[in-house]
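Example 3.2
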Amino acid sequence: MNHKKYNKHLLDFIKNSPTPFHVVANMQESLDAAGFQHLKEEERWQLINGNGYYVTRNDSSIIVFIFGMKPSVETGIRLVGGHTDSPCLKIKPQPEVYKNSYYQLGVEVYGGALLGPWFDRDLSIAGKVSYQTEKGKLQESLIDMKRPVGIIPSLAIHLDRDANNNRSIDPQTDMLPILYKCGNTREDFRSILAKELPPSAHSGSVSILDYDLYFYDCQLPALIGFKKDFISSARLDNLLSCFAGLQALLNSNKQITSVLACYDHEEVGSTSAIGANGSFLESLLDRIYSEPEEKSRVMAQSILISTDNAHGIHPNFPSKHDENHAPVINEGLVIKVNANQRYATNSTTSSFLKNLCKEISVPTQYFVSRAGIPCGSTIGPITAANIGVKTIDVGVPTFAMHSIRELAGANDAYYLFQTLSAFLDIEKL
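Structure, written as tokens:
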């Protein structure tokens, strides 16, 4: 797959993946088409060497693996990790707010969102809805309204003369999207949702029980810039990595057992049944390698590449970076290092990656946070601690991380795919 074709597919993937549920559904569609088998955790597994499989939890986390032809105790396994969630606005269970004849919805801020850019955007709603059919059966369905249904207007500067100097944002009162002019009427949000269910749900009356729904920006992902060398989009953190990992695995060497784990809840700490600090990956590995000694031997020979976006140096704010560790967009994959183990990289794993990238002509850079500015973390240290695997944290340099619209490099997105593809093809570490 060449550079242009890859990025076109990446933009389509992000466009069609407004929530973690849609991310997993779209990954499943690609995996089914490629002949991968969907395993259920509650069922007995019969694994065949050389075949591909995937497992999901909550429809928002997914682990994909190829059960290699060669014994894992001889080769180790190759693991790639990412996350399916992004900071956003999540709709509350009883969200209806009526103010001054406007119908609004109450929201919670999910993760460490940069709130300012959410104002004056055309917003839609997507997620998962649970409902009861006319016959009393409980069912779930993904929805995506795919059209602008809400907006959070800014307060005019005439009414807040200090807005450009010192405007604080109260998420409880300032971030409520407006859906429509309601006058004195009242409408249950669940009745609105019922109309958005797919046709298969409307064989009779349905009762909406609950939902996990999120607002998202309707603006489509795009290649931008005078030379179209930038990717501008929502959710680059971390769908860019999920897509790269999936494409690399679909084209990987079936001789070696390879694993792609894409978790929900990374942006809120990863501690959940479906997060990286839960049992999902360890449970899967225990089923593949039922003998503890075998599993330990396999892990000792394995490596995890934890893929999550990195902070590119912003030309308007260069003082926010350590000048010797300031990644530039479209100048290569970023190796992320932190002395306090916010990243799991060490000299052994970084040397392995640098050597791999050199062989395939992919440039590399370093990110180390400026002293005095704490960095974020990733699934890398969590996974390394839970399963005892050597780990390196890498990412694509990005601007405006956790904004409603982020910016990365078209070359870097392809570099990540090339690197993961080469990594999954290594037969002996």
